[in-house]
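Need residues for this backbone.
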C-alpha cells in the first residue's frame, strides 16, 4: 500500500509529497534548510542542518516513525569539504547507537542556494521497547509477577539497568542485563518457587 505523508513543519513547494510510505518503508523528499513558515533559508551550514533535521523528524513522525528508524540517508552538498565537520557532528547527535547507511554526493547547485539537501529511507512498523518505571517493577514484584524482561539473559535498554529494582532477588548488571541470583537454575524455576502459578507480565 502506498500513501503520501505530509507535515505542516515540512511544507512542499511543488507537485511532490514530503514523503511516501510504501509497505514497510518511508521515503522522504529531499529537505533543505527552509523555515516552514516563511520559506526563508537559514543562514550557514550549521543552521541549515538544524532546520533540515527538524523537517525530516516531522515527516517521520507524521508517518508513525522516528529519525532513529532511518536505514539510509543521502546527503547532497555543494561543498563536501566545508560541510563534512557539521555533518559528522549532526549525525552523531541524532544517530548515537545505530547509525544509518549514508551516501554523500557533491553537487554544483541546490534549490535556493542551499548548502545541503538530505533525504531518508526509514523503516516503518518498528517496535520501540519501553523500560518499565520503578513503580511498575515494584507492583509486579509485589504481586508475585515476573519482572520485565521475561527471560534470564534478555538484553534490556540501558535505562532499565539504571532502575533500582524493588526486589532483592534481581539486580542491574553493568552490561545492561538483569542478573539472576545464585542457585537459580532458570528464571522460571526461581519464580515458580516464589509464586505459584507464575504470572508473566509484558
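Answer:
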Amino acid at each position: 500500500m502506498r500513501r503520501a505523508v505530509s507535515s505542516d513543519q515540512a511544507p512542499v513547494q511543488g507537485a511532490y509529497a514530503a514523503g511516501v510510505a510504501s509497505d514497510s518503508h518511508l521515503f522522504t523528499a529531499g529537505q533543505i534548510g527552509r523555515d516552514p513558515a516563511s520559506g526563508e533559508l537559514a543562514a550557514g551550514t550549521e543552521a541549515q542542518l538544524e532546520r533540515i533535521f527538524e523537517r525530516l523528524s516531522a515527516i517521520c513522525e507524521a508517518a508513525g516513525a522516528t529519525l532513529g528508524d532511518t536505514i539510509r540517508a543521502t546527503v547532497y552538498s555543494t561543498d563536501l569539504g566545508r560541510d563534512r565537520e557539521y555533518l559528522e557532528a549532526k549525525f552523531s547527535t541524532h544517530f548515537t547507537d545505530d547509525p544509518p547507511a549514508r551516501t554523500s554526493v557533491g553537487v554544483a547547485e541546490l534549490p535556493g542556494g542551499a548548502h545541503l539537501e538530505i533525504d531518508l529511507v526509514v523503516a516503518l512498523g518498528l517496535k520501540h521497547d519501553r523500560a518499565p518505571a520503578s513503580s511498575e517493577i515494584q507492583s509486579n514484584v509485589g504481586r508475585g509477577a515476573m519482572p520485565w524482561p521475561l527471560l534470564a539473559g534478555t538484553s534490556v535498554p540501558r535505562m532499565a539497568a539504571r532502575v533500582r529494582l524493588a526486589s532483592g532477588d534481581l539486580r542491574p548488571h553493568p552490561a545492561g542485563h538483569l542478573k539472576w541470583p545464585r542457585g537459580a537454575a532458570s528464571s522460571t524455576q526461581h519464580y515458580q518457587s516464589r509464586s505459584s502459578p507464575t504470572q508473566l507480565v509484558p
